[in-house]
Each structure stands twice: as C-alpha cells, then as structure tokens.
Amino acid sequence: MLPEIKAPKDLAPCLCHSPAEDPKSYRPIPFKILERMVHSRIEPVVDSQLPREQAGFRRGRSTADQVTLLCQDIEHSFQDNEKAGVVYLDLTAAYDTVWHRGLHLKLLRTIPDRHMVKFIMETLSNRSFILQTSSGQCSRLRRLKNGVPQGSVLSPMLFNVYIHNLPDTASRKYGYADDLAIMLSQPMWKAMEEGLNEDMGTLVAYL
Predict the structure, then answer these.
(1) Residue-by-residue DSSP string for the chain
(2) What is the pLDDT of residues 77-99, one digit of tens each?
(3) Where does the Reverse transcriptase domain lie (predicted)?
C-alpha cells in the first residue's frame, strides 16, 4: 500500500503490517527510496507505451542511438537522390512547464494502477519555494502550480509520458528527453523546406 502524501518530506509513512488503522503498523521510509520503488514498479509499464522515437532516460537507449539513426536516415535519403533537412528543437524550461492536469490525464491512460497515479500526483501537489539572496533577504512563499521537481528519479519518466503523444508529422522525429530533432527528405528543396516549416508549426503549437 502506498502512503498518502499531503506534502513531500524527507520521510514518508509506509504500511508494513496490518491493520492499516493502527499507527504502529507504519514505518518511516526515506522519500527518495519510496520514489525509486515507485519508479521500478511503473518503468516497464510506461516504457512499453513510449514511442520508438523517444530515447531519453530509457533502459538500453542512448543519445548515440538517436544520432546514429538520424545519420543513417540522412544517408538513405541521399542514396535515393532526395534532399534532407534537419531542425533541432530545445524545449526551454521543459520540466518547469509541465501542466499537471494534462500530465494527470496522460498518466491515467498509461498506468492502469489508479493508486499509483494518485500517489504520483500527490507528490507534485502543494509544492512551494522561497528565494533567498546572498544578503539573507527572503521572498514571499510562492506555490508551484506546474512542473516536475528537479532531481527526482520520477521526473524524467513523467516528462516522457507528458510528451510521448506528439502530433503526427511528415518529418521523422528523434527525441532524447527535452531535445528533439526532426528530419524530412523530399525530391525538391522547396518541398522539403515547406514541409519542415509546416511540421515545426504543428509541434510548436502543441508544445
């Protein structure tokens, strides 16, 4: 059973014995360890539903794989006497702009275990921060309404879920976390350029 998280702390209660109503049945567990336990449970489920074009933070996949695949596709287009164009996209502040409501809906479609989804969303809620200057002055407490926490073992996987259903494009996509390249080959330069511009517009509107 997963504990209910009101606000993520260094320690979280974990049910070790029955009955669940008895406080003595719980033992404290470091929250980082609990995150890793959740990650190991959902990783196979999530990975099986991610598209081949996304290689970021996936077991057995790397940046080198995507670079090699892109180079091979460009070479094949040259062999077919076509013009190839590539555009590289870097999603600015990608982790900080994840929309929680949208992520929640996508998690429900990806992970069958509703208790697991509920736990994940609770770890993202009620987060806040204070800025402190070198002179010791502090800002007001501000709440975070979007984003996934930096440094969390779950965040890369959650981001993959969030962007895994990018719209279809004529261009082929090569993703690694928040970095994305698209490649299109056409017989004529103008057709290739127009196609890339159209696909960029589609992706930018979605993101």
Answers:
(1) -PPP-SS--SEEEEE-SS-TT-GGGEEEEEHHHHHHHHHHHHHHHHHTTS-TTB-TT-TT--HHHHHHHHHHHHHHHHHTT-EEEEEEEE-TTTGGG-BHHHHHHHHHHH-S-HHHHHHHHHHHTTEEE--B-TTS-B---EEE-B---TT-TTHHHHHHHHHTTPPP-SSEEEEETTEEEEEEEESSHHHHHHHHHHHHHHHHHH-
(2) 999 999 999 999 887 778 888 88
(3) 1-207
- Contact present, 36 and 153 (Cβ < 8 Å): yes
Closest CA to 128 of 136, 117, 138, 116: 138
What pLDDT does residue 49 have?
A: 84
The two structure tokens encoding residue 28 = 């404290």
**pLDDT tens digits for 37-80?**
888 888 999 888 887 877 777 777 778 888 888 999 999 999 99
Rounded CA-CA distance 43/61 in Å is 14
